[in-house]
Design a protein that fits this description.
By secondary structure, the chain is α/β, with parallel strands linked by helices. The protein has a single domain, classed as Aldolase class I (TIM Barrel, Alpha-Beta Barrel). It contains eleven helices and ten strands. Strands 1, 2, 3, 4, 5, 6, 7, 8, 9 and 10 form a ten-stranded mixed sheet that branches. Helix 1 (3-17) packs antiparallel against helix 6 (142-154), helix 5 (115-127) crosses helix 6 and helix 10 (246-259) packs parallel to helix 11 (288-301). The chain is globular, with a radius of gyration of 19 Å. Bound molecules: iron/sulfur cluster (SF4). Iron/sulfur cluster binds at residues 24-27, 29-31, 33, 41-43, 45, 93, 140.
C-alpha cells in the first residue's frame, strides 16, 4: 500500500479520533477524561505520547525479529537480519498485577515526545535496518501516534506497522485502524472472569478482547511473509502461559480454533517470571510440564503456525527487560 494511501487513512482516522482528547472513550473503560485539561483516566495518559524505550528488538517472534534464537551466543554474532523496530510506550489501560513491563505500565517511566519527535525516532529505526515498526502498548496514545506516523510517512517511512496490544480494546476504535496497521499482535491473556479479576483491573477482559481479536482477523485474515520469512501482514495472537493456569490457556486455544481460524499465527510464550505484585498463586516460575500441556493441546487442535519457546526452560537467562537500565534488554543495538 502506498504511503499516500496510508496518510489518507490516518487523516480520516484522526478526524474521528481527535474528539477523544477532550472526552476519552477510546477503550472499554470509557473514563471520559479530558486530557486537554490535564485529566487522567485509568491509563494515566496525557495528550502527548510518552515514550519509554526505542530500539531494535531481537527477541520477538522470528517472523518479526528475524532471529529464531535470541540466546546471547547467537545475538553476539548478529550475522543476518536487523530486528524489530520497537517503540515502548508508558502507561497501560489493563495494569496486570504480574506485568513483566511494570516499570512502564504502572510507574509510567518515560519521556513525553511530540509527533515530530516520534516520527524522528521511527525513521531512525528504519535507518538502522529495522524489519518493521513495532508499537508496544499503543492504544491509549493512538491519537499522537497516528500524528507521528503521518509525519513519518511524509518523510519516507516504508516499513510495516505492528500493532502490539493487550487486546483490551473497543471494536469501534480498531475499525478506524483498518488499512493503517499491517500486522496485529494482540495478547489474549485470560479466558475466565476469575483470572481477569484476580490478575488485572478488569472483570470483563475476555468479553472485549475476543471481539477485538475478531475485528483484527476481519481486517487481516491472512498471515503473509516475504522471501526472508518476515511477516508482512496478518494476525499473530500471543498468549503468556501462567503457572497453574493450564485450563485457562487451553480454553483460549479452543476458542481461537473454534471462533477465529487455525491459520492465524499463535505464539505461546513461556517467558513468565514472577514479578511486581504477582499474587501468591502465581509467585512461582512456569513449569515445563504446564507449558508442554498447552503446547501439545495447541498442536492437537491443528494450528498451522505456532511459535513456541521451549528453550527458555533450558536457560538461566530470562527475557524480562529492566527499564531502569539504559539498555533494558540483554542486547544493545
Ligand atoms: S484510553 Fe485511557 S483515558 Fe481513554 S478510556 Fe481508556 S483508560 Fe480511559
Amino acid at each position: 500500500m502506498s504511503s499516500q494511501i496510508k496518510i489518507n487513512r490516518i487523516q480520516r482516522a484522526l478526524d474521528l479520533l481527535t474528539p477523544h482528547e477532550s472526552h476519552c472513550t477510546l477503550c472499554p473503560h470509557e473514563c471520559g477524561a479530558d486530557r486537554r485539561k490535564g485529566e487522567k483516566g485509568i491509563c494515566e495518559s496525557g495528550v502527548q505520547t510518552k515514550l519509554s524505550h526505542v530500539g531494535l528488538h531481537f527477541g520477538e517472534e522470528p517472523v518479526l525479529s528475524g532471529y529464531r534464537d535470541c540466546s546471547s551466543e547467537i545475538l553476539n554474532k548478529k550475522t543476518h537480519l536487523a530486528g524489530s523496530g520497537t517503540l515502548f510506550f508508558s502507561g497501560c489501560n489493563l495494569k496486570c498485577l504480574f506485568c513483566q513491563n511494570y516499570q512502564l505500565s504502572w510507574f509510567n517511566q518515560g519521556t513525553e515526545v511530540t509527533p515530530a519527535e516520534l516520527a524522528k525516532n521511527i525513521l531512525t529505526l528504519q535507518k538502522k535496518g529495522a524489519l518493521n515498526i513495532n508499537l508496544v502498548s499503543p492504544m491509549h496514545f493512538l491519537i499522537p501516534i497516528l500524528r507521528g506516523l503521518e509525519l513519518a510517512y511524509e518523510q519516507g517511512l516504508h516499513l510495516q506497522i505492528v500493532y502490539n496490544t493487550n487486546a483490551f480494546e473497543k471494536v469501534q476504535t480498531l475499525t478506524l485502524l483498518e488499512g493503517i496497521m499491517d500486522i496485529y499482535l494482540p495478547d489474549l491473556k485470560f479466558f475466565s472472569l476469575l483470572a481477569a479479576r484476580t490478575l488485572s483491573n478488569t472483570l470483563d477482559y475476555f468479553q472485549y478482547a475476543h471481539l477485538a481479536i475478531k475485528e483484527m482477523f476481519r481486517q487481516k485474515p491472512n498471515l503473509r511473509f516475504n522471501n526472508n520469512e518476515i511477516a508482512q501482514e496478518g494476525l499473530i495472537i500471543r498468549h503468556l502461559v501462567l503457572p497453574g493456569m493450564v485450563k485457562d490457556s487451553i480454553d483460549i486455544m479452543e476458542w481461537i480454533a473454534g471462533n477465529v481460524s487455525l491459520s492465524v499465527g499463535i505464539s505461546l510464550m513461556s517467558q513468565y517470571f514472577p514479578c511486581f505484585r504477582a499474587p501468591k498463586e502465581i509467585q512461582k516460575k512456569l513449569s515445563s510440564k504446564d507449558y508442554s500441556l498447552v503446547v501439545d493441546h495447541a498442536q492437537k487442535l491443528g494450528f498451522e503456525i505456532l511459535f513456541i519457546q521451549p528453550e527458555l526452560f533450558e536457560s538461566t537467562e530470562h527475557l524480562n527487560p529492566d527499564f531502569d537500565k539504559k539498555s533494558p534488554f540483554k542486547w544493545t543495538d
